[in-house]
Specification:
alpha+beta, 22% strand
Amino acid sequence: MIWLHSFAVEGPDGAWGPLCEDGPDGRRQAISVAGRFSYADGRLGAGEPGSFELACTAGAMGKCVRFGYHPWQTRNLPQPVSHHDGEPVPSQLDLFNACIRMVRADYGGDGTGTTRNGMLIDLYDDYGIQAPDLDHRMTFEAGWTQDGAVCVSHPRVKENISLGEIAARWRRLAGRTGATCTEEAARSLGALLFNRSMP
């Protein structure tokens, strides 16, 4: 069970209003998440003892918790079919951070989001947390780790960034964009999460 909290803040005019903006489902609530979010690189870390973040349900952190990626869980994840002996099994925190990258379309893993509000995505993993919806209108976009995309088939918002700009800006993605980026290729590159979006 995830507890959602309603918070109000006082504005400069003395009026009180919700802390969080409306999410896709109209909720304006927050979830407390242990740790500290680094705005410098866009990932959640352990932080100092007792530290926590308020993750609004409309934001990437809140969405990822509600998708089932719970960074506080310590139980081992099941090994996916594609797992090979000797490969480390990711932690729940790794999946959570990969989800933040995916929700924000943070391809380079440096905290730079390239999406926009209201974009539809179909996310899934090999750990039994999220399964693909298989919406025929969507095609494979990218595979994700806590460090960003491992490859990008097409950008989610072409007006915000192109494949050429992705390859030029984040050199590790050069040669890993376009038709060479398939779900199978992303899996072979160590992707933890996958997503599909409108081409």
